[in-house]
Every structure is written in C-alpha cells, then in structure tokens.
C-alpha cells in the first residue's frame, strides 16, 4: 500500500495530531502569551477531530510501516479512551491555569505531543515503535509535571518523575535488547513465532525488564514509588492527565505485548502479572487509609485500580481482555469526575486539597456532595454503580481462568479500599461544615455531572461499552 494511502486510512488520528501540534506551535510563537485562548480551543478541536476519525474508521485490521504499527479494533478502542482523557484534561485545566497565572500556549501543545506518543504506543507492533511512543509520551509528561516552575512542589515532582522515568527507560531498553538478542527480531509477531513454550532464560529476563518498565508507566506496585509525590506536587490538571489518559496507553501496550508477542509463554508472564496485580491492590488499599491529602489518596487509589485491571490480563484470554477494556473505560470516567471535584475545591480563591476540607459539604453544596459521593461509591465498587460492574467482569474472567486465589484477594482488597472511599462520604455528610467552596466553573460542573450520570446509567444501558470492549478484545485474538 502506498505511503500516503497508509497515512489516510490507518494513521489518520496521529497525522491530525502531528500536523495540528505544528500549527499550534507556530500560532503560539507568533502570538505569544496572547495566543493561549486560541491555542487551547484549537487543541480541543484537534483532539476532537482525531476522536471523530477513530469513531468513523471502518478499515480492516492492518499492520503497516513494515510491521511497526498496527491499526486494529483494540488500538482504536484504547485510542478513543486516551483522546477522551486528553480532551477532558484540557477542559479541566483552563480555569486553574488562569487563576495561577500559567496561561501559556505550551501547555495544550505538551498535552497533544504526549497524546500523540500515547497513540503511537497503543498501536506499536514492534519493540522500536514501542520505545519511540513511550519516550514521546514521557518527555512531554516530565515537562508537564514541573509546569508550575515557580512552585517548589511542582519542580520537585517533575524532577522525581524525570529521574525515575529515566531509570524505567533504561530497563525498557535493556529488556528489549535481550529480547532482540535471543529472538533475532523486534517484531511482536516474530518474537511470538520464535519463543516457544520453553524459552531461553534470556527471554524471561527480557520480558521481566520490559514489564517492569511498563508497570512504572502505569504506576503499578512495586514500581509505584513516584506516584504519590508526583500526584500531589504536580499541578492538579496535570495529575488528572497522568491518572487518566497516560494509564490508558500504558495498560494497552502491556496487554498487547503479552498477548501478541508471548502467547506461548503464558505461564511465565502470568506469574509476573499476578504478582504486580496483588501487590498493587494490597498497597493501594492499605496505604490510602491514612492519607489526608485527597490527591495522594487518589494516587494510591489509582495504584489499586491498576491492580484490579491487571486481574483481567492475568486471565490471558479474550474474556479477560474484554474485562480490562471495560474496567479502563469505567475507571476513566470515575477518575475524570473525581478530579473535576478536586479542582472545584476552592475557598475564597484558594485551592484546598485535604479530605477535611470536604467536611459538611452536603450542607454547603448538596449537589456537589451527591455527585462526589456517587463517584466514591463507584470507586469502591458498590452496586449498581458502574464501578461494581468493572470489578465484576475482571473477577469473573479470573474465576473462569481458574485463578481463584487472585479473585479472592481482589474481593478482600476491594473491601479494605471501601473504607477510605466511604470515609470521604462520611466526612461530607456527617462532619461539621468547613468553609463553603466557591462556585465552580461550568466546565468542572459539567464534567462532574456527566461522569456521575454515566456511572449511574451504566447498569441501565451497558451495551455500547460492552459491545465495543468485546470487539476490541476479539481483534487481539
């Protein structure tokens, strides 16, 4: 297929973002800081156009660019989630940036660059494309974490993420070099053809290093060490982007590489995934109990949720991947809604971040209290909210695969995690009122309300998500 035909049919979302970001850089360079509003609006439009291109795509599953890039149902599903996370993250950031004097056109440009890296990562079909996508995503995220450069906490967060991110990149390169050395190819399909059910020890070591690097990117234990500090120190809209879009890409490539490159050594990589899943669930459940800062609480919550998502991957079959896709969709909705509420926590123009600042919210802002309570109930997995179904489908896949111990640990970890989610509800409804929050901007209220309605309505009409997740999982098998 000619190069430009490939771009038009299978690489259109990435092409839109690449061309769009170059146009935004030129506009920002000519207009300076006055161009923030225009660049911000155009960034949302560019991301939205890429999302429409994915939604309208009807091309068959195809591997292009000499097998470096694959366009299939799974990649399109995960790209759609990533783009939604990026769009909402920009919408959530506008008021925060204005109030903190950070109306710089570079911010939406960095989000699009990072999102472009995420899309490339999701469709990577060999080790080189994987590394290029991972680094393009990460380099922009390093800058975004330290975007509030006059804030010591933000600079510290950016430095921590950069140093530990460099370590994970080294692990990725070392693992990829081992895999190439023993398999003689960088292609996922080529690795799968070479690696048999009894692989050389070098392949196992390479797989361990690659999965460790990817676990860092999805902030799964025991490679979570950067997450609480970076989530707390980074600007809150950046934290929302970290917790939503970035995790979609990291989990997607993890699913793809183990399913397509290592189908013959399922028993080996399953042990690694089970260990990471259990460690993440337990750490996320117990470490969050004592957290008073709500951003740190959400950091440990995200670690725990990555553990639950990996339960589906541990099953290693189509039902398990479908469970992962459903889980990530619902997790994205819950996370964006929660960060919309966190960004709405502002008293007399000053942002507050402690759980105690939510005290008595039901008496000072009943609607916000209701929406946030529904989000907490969903994060805890209380039926009939969508969070319950997210956990149900990954646990069901684990049981069907015979992983009964993993399923039991998942249920117990969910019960422990319910404590700190329900504690937030208790503080809002039963404690004496703290100072009332300022009126939230329309964008925050819209995201908070829409996410809550989506979680409440999932059990009534789940078929769009269920059907799309099933089709995405089928394309990998």
From TrEMBL:
Does the record bear Transmembrane in its keywords? yes
Q: Which UniProt keywords apply?
A: Cell membrane, Membrane, NAD, Oxidoreductase, Quinone, Translocase, Transmembrane, Transmembrane helix, Transport, Ubiquinone
Alphabetically, the GO molecular function entries are: NADH dehydrogenase (quinone) (non-electrogenic) activity; NADH dehydrogenase (ubiquinone) activity; quinone binding
Q: What is its EC number?
A: 7.1.1.-
Q: What class of enzyme is it?
A: translocase
Q: Which GO terms describe its biological process?
A: ATP synthesis coupled electron transport
- Which InterPro entries does the record match to this protein? NADH-Q_OxRdtase_suN/2, ND/Mrp_TM
Membrane-topology descriptor:
Multi-pass membrane protein
State the reactions this protein catalyses. a quinone + NADH + 5 H(+)(in) = a quinol + NAD(+) + 4 H(+)(out)
Subcellular locations according to the entry:
Cell membrane; Endomembrane system; Membrane
Segments forming domain NADH:quinone oxidoreductase/Mrp antiporter transmembrane: 124-415
GO CC annotation terms, alphabetical: endomembrane system; plasma membrane
Which residue ranges traverse the bilayer? 12-30, 42-60, 80-98, 105-122, 188-216, 237-259, 271-290, 297-315, 321-345, 366-386, 392-422, 443-461
Query: Main role?
Result: NDH-1 shuttles electrons from NADH, via FMN and iron-sulfur (Fe-S) centers, to quinones in the respiratory chain. The immediate electron acceptor for the enzyme in this species is believed to be ubiquinone. Couples the redox reaction to proton translocation (for every two electrons transferred, four hydrogen ions are translocated across the cytoplasmic membrane), and thus conserves the redox energy in a proton gradient.
Subunit architecture: NDH-1 is composed of 14 different subunits. Subunits NuoA, H, J, K, L, M, N constitute the membrane sector of the complex.
HAMAP family noted in UniProt: NDH1_NuoN_1
Similarity remark: Belongs to the complex I subunit 2 family.
What protein does this entry describe?
A: NADH-quinone oxidoreductase subunit N
In its UniProt entry, the species of origin is given as Methylocystis hirsuta
